[in-house]
Amino acid sequence: MTDRALQNFVNGKFTDASDGRTSDVIDPSTGEVYAQAPISSRQDVDTAMQAAANAFEVWRDSTPSERSLALLRFADAMEKRADEIIEAETRNTGKPVALTASEEIPPAVDQIRFFAGAARVLEGRSAGEYLRDHTSMIRREPIGVCAQVTPWNYPMMMAVWKFAPAIAAGNAVVLKPSDTTPVSTLLMAEIAAEFLPPGVFNVICGDRDTGRELISHPTPSMVSITGSVRAGMEVARSAADDLKKVHLELGGKAPVVVFDDADVEATAEGIAGAGYFNAGQDCTAATRVLAGPGIAADLTAALAEQANNTTTGGLDVPDAYFGPLNNPNQLARVEGFIARKPDHAEVVAGGHRVGERGYLYAPTVVSGLRQDDELIQDEVFGPVITVQRFSDEDEAIRWANGVKYGLASSVWTKDHGRAMRMAKRLDFGAVWINTHIPIVAEMPHGGFKHSGYGKDLSMYGFEDYTRIKHVMSYIGA
Fold it and tell me: Which of 104, 146, 205, 283 is catalytic?
């Protein structure tokens, strides 16, 4: 039952979309509609872009300390209103409340504070005379208006990864959340409005056509998206027509390479924790296990036990480790992968929907797969862990790197030299050793190949939202 009408947030206030079109916002744990979100048109995009362009003229001239203070106050307000944000995020995504409170709110707030600090420490090469009688210096400047698109798997946190570095660097933002998960992003924009000039942080709701209007609009100087490979390619093509700077964080198919000397039970527990978190709806999820010949059978059995002992449920299940898939299309996608499983593979745990209400899918383990199987090559984006048995280190590397993605990976072994060799050879933007999935604000997140380019988090991610200008002054007599 619909109980709420959402609005865009533009120029510091909520506003209706121009033509009154809306889409359903659904609680994935029940499958029921609980809100209506506007579908923004070109006119709405124009309005938001104009607000951002006007705000940029003011915000770009703010001092680093002013930007830092605004973001620190915003982070404090996020903490004070955490219960509201948690309610918005869990109702919109179906995620367990306790897990969202403990695993998502604290890092999101910390990441805003990190970028608040980063605003004050940008550096360039020192000024100097590289040509006689001429002094050169480097200026780091904000890029301008940034068009940003965020996904539905972590709507709150992915929005933070986009707007925090952009705003800290002095840019203005027009951000479109996924059409299925706009609620927490709109709430954060409302909270931020107390501390930012109107128009610095704008949020418009809408569908794929809205996103296309956003990306193709002539105003933004930079486009940043977290989403599918298909969406990233479309964005890159569109942005190329206007030579916009592009930042892409796309899909993943993380290899989890487990050697025979790893502790079976501890490794299985770690993999299950990192593979099933957020129902596997994570580009870095530990879902593609490559196991050594001496450990494969025992590890597969231990992973099956972990799957069978993992509690699932909607936001009202207090001890649930993960909730539903985000939408019916994603549920159908995961079901399709399992239905098309080749005959030589075996489902050793799960492999089915849970209940008839909402979009829950059981923690699943599939063994006996081959390198060219669909389940190995394509991103499932669900709670499905696959297991392959490799023969030696070289084969493990070939299989690990033998996919189109290059976002994240992990190695599990007690042999330090082997771990370092693997870290060097793995063609992924992140390599974890004897762990998988921890992310900190100080370290970059981003991949290679079809996983995109550009970095989120860290000073590397912050610098992506700046441009470099050379200034040379003649100082001769």
Answer: 283
